[in-house]
Amino acid sequence: MKKNIPALIFIPLFCLFEIGLTRAQSLTHLEKRYEQLNIQYEKENRILDSLKNIFSFKTSLIDIEKEKKNPDNDKVIELMAGSVSTSNKIEEQNKKINRIENETENVKHLLHERYIAKIDSLESLKKTGKTDEAKIDTEILMLTEKNILVAPRILSLSFNPEKILQIDLNKTKDPKEKTLYKEYLDNALTEVSTLLETVGTQISEINQIVSLQTKTRKFLEEAELESNMIIQSQRNQTPEIDAAPRPVENTGFTGTSSDFATNVKNYQIILRQLDIQQLSKTDLKLKMSFEETDRKLDIKEYQKLLKEVKERLQEFKLVLANKIGSVK
Amino acid sequence: MISGYTINAFLIFSALLFLPSFTYSQIDWRLNSEVGFFRSSGYGILREESLITRFDGFFKYKYDEDKRNASLSFRVRPEFFSSDNPINSVKLKAEGDYFQVEDNFNWGVNISRQKNFFNDILFDFTYDVFTLVGDVSYYFDKLTLNTSAGYAYQIIKGNEEYNLDLFFTDIKLLSPVSTNIKLGYGFYLERFFIKNEINLLNELTTNKNDGVRAGPQVNINYFKNFVLNIDYRLLYHQSEFIEYFSYEHWIRLVAGKIFFNDWSAFLLVDYNSFFFKKDENYIEGVTPLYTPLNLENRIYLKIAYEIDNNLEVYTKGGYFKDNLYEDTFSLEGWNAMVGIELNGGK
Which of A60, A65, A166, B262 is the least crowded, having the fewest Cβ atoms under 10 Å away? Predict the structure, then answer.
């Protein structure tokens, strides 16, 4: 047994090292894959554009031939056959592009998860105080920037997040351009801060609703047992309050609490402003459709969604503050 | 005797406080310990002033998917009443819930069984309730139609036995009145079958009754910064031993608010009164008119302070009057408790 002690210590350490290495490799691999997919996407889109041009050229030839006084029917048939073949190719190309888009989304999702995990672990490391804090901050910032590129986008913001990332005030030589960029960043920062404040208020409101619902249900459950002899055996005799908070865990969805419905509508306005898409790519189960009636919303999923919006906005704020603050 | 229980209660609970707070996203659990005073009068086993010590353990496993969820919960609540003749009681409850979301409606099934055991020097007493309920909610624009139907049985067993079987259906239309207020109106229908075995002149005699309990119901619900819910039912009774027109009022009020972030207060008021025109075949104390399901009048208040996400202290108290068997036997009293709760999951 004693002989095995070094092996017993070494094997788990080796495994941990290997796992770490694999994770690191897989992140690099994913980043490369993401890059490849982007290149491939652009290339395939160019092919699609060419095919569309050929198709439009062929249809215009058909139109020209048809407009002639004595059109050559054989030529028209030949051209039409050609355009059908091009149309099929376009369809195939579209499918190919869709496949790339789907894979890109998956890779983005994986990258997003990895970046978040890495940022979290770096932040934990930072808290230990054993490592170079400045170095960790730089790495966190770099990862945050990368994460923003792959995270689900907040499209309705008045600024372009990708553009923000490209701006480097220190590299801008022209003072006028620098001023414009600075103003652009300042405005973006103000907008993000305001949105954060609003989302924060909404989160606190929804937290209170969830908490009130949970406590009400708990109180009623207790009251049932509190009864000395008589049990409220019929479930439907518990008040509508029970039905109102049911979304949390009993039903998963609401349909009976008007106040909640109205609150959800208010939150939807904010979400519409944020226009968060690609939710299905995140771990959120809630697929938001603004045409859908609010009763189908799960309050806890909604709570999760708001938290995600908040985190995303905080990331933007951090990047913006760094960009503005780094001006020499 | 009671001081021993009380000390044990707090020792056990204090030990629990030092356990690490395990939190699983799929599991909810709660542990409560309470002590307080209890005073009652009237019929039965709890007729005196006494100290009460109570523990309450609750465990729930939840399974959650995109459009469906299920849960299974268990609860155990031992209670120790101290008096000249100590009384012990254990309340057990198991419950299963399934819920699914469809395009324009939701449906769910709930099954529960609760068993209460009481014992004192003189006799043992059990209370057994089973319910099976299915419910469906349909959505029409802003309106929601809630329908539920189910079966329940209740058995009270001591020296005598009281059985109740009932089938019920509840239909309610809910419509928003304003941003935070919702009004519900509908109909409740219940078909009941009662069979009692009563000790009459040292001989167990079986008595039966069956009938209908039905009527309109309204509900008003406010939910925003605080919650206020009022239910009212006017139920018409018809059975073998009741003449036209016999009826019952049933009112329930629930109010609750969270204040100063960590404080919360909840109030429950149940009021029930019934007016039965008894048939000439009716024999007082023998013929069952309606078993004591849901015939309780009470006011129950709880004020809690949340120390952190997993720890809460509270005080609660209330007045109650249970009409145990028609209005012949009743249990009336009040209680006041202080307690502490350790919880996890959420």
Answer: A166
Tell me what the pLDDT averaged over chain A comes to. 71
Show the beta-strand stretches assigned E in chain B. 27-42, 49-64, 68-82, 87-101, 105-119, 124-140, 143-157, 161-176, 181-200, 203-223, 226-239, 242-259, 263-278, 296-308, 311-325, 329-344
- pLDDT tens per residue across span B163-181: 889 899 999 999 888 777 8
| Cβ <8 Å between A244 and B266 | no
DSSP letters, A171-196, are: T---HHHHHHHHHHHHHHHHHHHHHH
Nearest CA to CA, how far is B273 from chain A (Å)? 15
ipTM tops 0.90: no
CA–CA gap between residue A235 and residue A213 (Å, rounded): 17
Alpha carbons within 13 angstroms on the beta-carbon side of residue B171 total 6
Output the DSSP codes for A195-206.
Answer: HHHHHHHHHHHH
Residue A237 has pLDDT above 50, yes or no: no
Question: Do B154 and A231 touch, CB atoms closer than 8 A?
Answer: yes
Q: Do B320 and A258 touch (CB under 8 A)?
A: no
Q: Which residues have C-beta within 8 Å of that of residue A27, sequence separation ≥ 6?
A: A111, A114, A118
Which residue has 């073949």 as its token pair? A85
Q: What one-character DSSP code corresponds to residue A153?
A: P
Which residues of chain B are under the pLDDT cut of 70?
Answer: 1-25, 41-48, 83-86, 121-122, 291-295, 322-331, 346
Residues A19-71 have pLDDT tens digits of 554 455 578 888 898 999 999 999 999 999 999 999 888 888 888 888 888 88
pLDDT value of residue A179: 84
- Determine contact, residues A320/A189, Cβ cutoff 8 Å: yes
Q: Does A227 contact B at CB distance below 8 Å? A: yes
Chain-chain contact of B182 with A232 (C-beta, under 8 angstroms): no
CA B141 to the chain's CA centroid? 33
* pLDDT at A266 exceeding the cut of 60: no
pTM, two decimals, is 0.63
* Spatial CA neighbour of B133 closest among B114, B153, B149: B149
Question: Which of B344, B292, B32, B277 is CA-nearest to residue B162?
Answer: B292
Residues in Cβ contact with A17 at an 8 Å cutoff, skipping those fewer than 6 apart: none
Q: Can you tell me the distance from the alpha carbon of B133 to that of A236, in angstroms, rounded to the nearest whole number?
A: 8
With CB atoms and an 8 Å threshold, state whether B221 touches A252.
no
Choice between B212 and A150, residue whose per-residue pLDDT is larger: B212
| Closest approach of A202 to chain B, Cα-based (Å) | 13
| pLDDT, greater one: B20 or A297 | A297
Supply the pLDDT for residue B94: 95
> Which phi-psi region, left, alpha or beta, contains residue B199 (left: φ > 0; alpha: ψ -120 to 50)?
beta
- Residue B245, preceding peptide bond in cis (omega within 30° of 0): yes
| Chain B interface mutation, best of A219, A254, A288, A293, highest count of B Cβ atoms under 10 Å | A219
Query: Which residues does chain A have within 8 Å of residue B129's beta carbon, measured at their own beta carbons?
Result: 231, 233
Minimum-distance CB partner of A239 among B110, B231, B302: B231
Concatenating the DSSP letter of every residue in A37-81 gives HHHHHHHHHHHHHHHHHHHHHHHHHHHHHHHSSS--HHHHHHHHH
Asked if B294 and A232 come within 8 Å (Cβ–Cβ), the reply is yes
